[in-house]
Amino acid sequence: MTKTQAVSFSRTGGPEVFDYVEVDLPPPAAGEVQIRQAAVGLNFIDVYFRNGSYKVPHLPFVTGKEGAGTVTSVGPGVADFKLGDRVAYASADGAYSIERNIEARHLVHVPDSIALETAAAMMLKGMTAEYLLNRTFKVGPETVLLFHAAAGGVGLIAGQWAKALGATVIGTAGSEDKVELALAHGYDHVINYKSDSFVDRVRDITAGKGVDVVYDSIGRDTFPQSLDCLKPRGLFASFGQSSGPIENFTLAALAQKGSLFATRPTLFTYIAARQELIDSAKALFDIVQSNKVRININQTYPLREVGQAHADLETRKTTGTTLLIP
Hints:
Layout: E1 2-9, E2 18-25, E3 32-41, H1 44-51, E4 67-74, E5 86-89, E6 99-103, E7 108-109, H2 116-136, E8 144-147, H3 153-164, E9 168-173, H4 176-183, E10 189-192, H5 198-205, E11 211-216, H6 225-228, E12 230-238, H7 251-256, E13 261-263, H8 267-270, H9 274-289, E14 297-302, H10 306-314, E15 321-325
Helix pairs in contact: 2-3, 2-9
């Protein structure tokens, strides 16, 4: 048995709970492959596990859902992958490591035209944008939508993708720099929520009609105002809670504000079936290869400095996509 390095935590809390440790790396078991990682994606779900918002299955725990690398060993029964294959994933705990074993069912092949670092930067965020725009609500030329955190990792991909689908795309951001960044990534209108009421601005932009769908990964700070941006029978898609969980939600509010619909989707449900994962990844790879969506890696940190990366993410000092480099 060999050894590798990983970042784990033995208690939940702030970024200070992380430890850079040596861990065992056994040969891959049946149905697994072993990969050496080129890069690991940083996502808010990693924060939720670290701070205890989401329960971890055991302690100590190596968090992280997303990464890309090269296959270095193949376990029994694996037919779809071989040594040297370039692969990526978005739904397997344990990404914060230099090398790792992973069930082959979580992996997809990365096209030769896409760098492994780019793949690591886009799998979770890009497939999140894919299911939100194509399946949670079918976005098209007639759609008017509001996307919170427009300058975030999912937001920058979703803005470009929604514009490619022909939608009218409205976003929110927390500074003028982030407003300008979002405007350069497909958004028709971006509201600085620190200086303007996004409800009032959405009503102005839509001539009082409201939007068809609100995509909200913020949670507490944007609820219930997000509901006030919707037209009657519009959809509230709450896919995250970076400011904290939504409280005092009632079904009656949906009726009072216009017979609204609400959903709390997760990527992991939308790619639970192997074919759904393959199809979602293909849609993402296709639109990136078409140059209709650009993947910009705006920050990189050594894996050892993951605590600083988490602190910067939580205090909204980052924009777009952040990578951890093993």
